[in-house]
Amino acid sequence: MTHSRTNSIPVAIAQRTAEHLGVRFVGQRLDEATLAANFEATAVNCEHHNPDLNSVAKFVLSKLVADSGVKVVLSGTQGVLFMYNLERR
């Protein structure tokens, strides 16, 4: 997942780190449309009340991981999440 800003420094760092490790970078744009599209499914599947949209972001991440077949997730701060498979490129 990435910020809705396309060329943010954290995204560049995540991409550079994945390249350095020789692994695949998988990104997901996290904007208002993505949050809105996944809000209902998050609320239905959540076990408790959440005061913010962080749970929706985690739900989107879980879907991305499942759909991508990713085995390992490296996550950073500021909403930047990057993932890689155990297989090298």
Itemize the secondary structure elements and their pairings.
Layout: H1 9-21, H2 32-45, H3 54-68, E1 72-75, E2 81-84
Antiparallel strand pairs: 1-2
Helix pairs in contact: 2-3
- How many helical elements? 3
On the 0 to 100 scale, the average pLDDT is 76
**Rg (C-alpha, Å):** 14 Å
Low-confidence stretches: 1-5, 77-89
Number of strands: 2
**Which band does the percent of strand residues land in?**
5-15%
**Main beta-sheet strand count, sense and barrel state:** 2 strands, antiparallel
Distance between the termini: 21 Å
Strand order, sheet with most strands = 1-2
Series of secondary-structure elements, N-terminal to C-terminal = HHHEE
Task: Work out the oligomeric state of the chains in this entry.
Answer: single chain
The secondary-structure class comes to: mainly alpha
Task: Kindly give the count of domains.
Answer: 1
**Silhouette:** elongated
Helical proportion, percent range: 40-55%
Explain the overall architecture.
This protein has 89 residues and is mostly helical. It has one domain. Helix content is 47%, strand content 9%. The chain contains three helices and two strands, in the order H-H-H-E-E. The protein has helices at 9-21, 32-45, 54-68; strands at residues 72-75, 81-84. Strands 1-2 form a two-stranded antiparallel sheet. A hairpin with a 5-residue loop joins strand 1 and strand 2 (81-84). Helix 2 packs across helix 3 (54-68). The two termini are 21 Å apart.
